[in-house]
Amino acid sequence: MELSLLTALNNESACRRAAIxxxxxxxxxxxxxxxxxxxxxxxxxxxxxxxxxxxKSGAVTSGENEVFLTVSVPAPRLVIxxxxxxxxxxxxxxxxxxxxxxxIDPRTAxxxxxxxxxxxxxxxxxxxxxxxxxxxxxxxxxxxxHDPKIDDYPLMEALxxxxxxxxxxxxxxxxxxxxxxxxxxxxxxxxxxxxxxxxGLDIGAxxxxxxxxxxxxxxxxxxxxxPETAA
Length: 231
Fold this sequence. Notes:
By secondary structure, the protein is α/β, with parallel strands linked by helices. It has 2 domains: 3-72, no CATH class; 77-229, Rossmann fold. Helix content is 38%, strand content 20%. It is built from 8 helices and 10 strands. Strand 8, helix 5 (148-161) and strand 9 form a beta-alpha-beta unit. Helix 3 crosses helix 8 (208-225). The longest helix has 18 residues, at 208-225.
């Protein structure tokens, strides 16, 4: 691989952005395709989109040529706002599914290491924590505190950043009031439509453990099928 291409690939990786190295197996030529690029006119456009979603490398045929696609995608993250019972059930499930998990909560009664062992917990206000670990397109955000003072900021940041999943706990009435606050804060309607609320797949979940399953299902659906499937 040429040094310039390797440098560009490493830069994308360091910035948690996805890219694909396309190698022509006939002549050995290579090119870098960034997920942020407009590759809609490329003969391999549909294949690129599928590979960015799946994260899997492999050989494909393009016309008379065989091309190997080396896919580099960031590890998906799940940021849970609220150290509640749902979060306690969701953390181990999400980790088993391969997600890097962080729980953020400023409330000392909930944010304790005995409830969240293993280093997933960030005991602080979302504004402060996110200053050092900003959201990106490979981050899912699940807000489950029921407290606008804690939930609203990270939800709006998640929408502005383009997180692949944005979900919020609460009834339809609660979500309606949330939307009123967001509109007043200047968040446009199209962005607000991306919020999965009430959070999670509609499976009739009742217990914290069942709600955690529903949330994880929505996160995986958005990751593998596209953000538009989540809300």
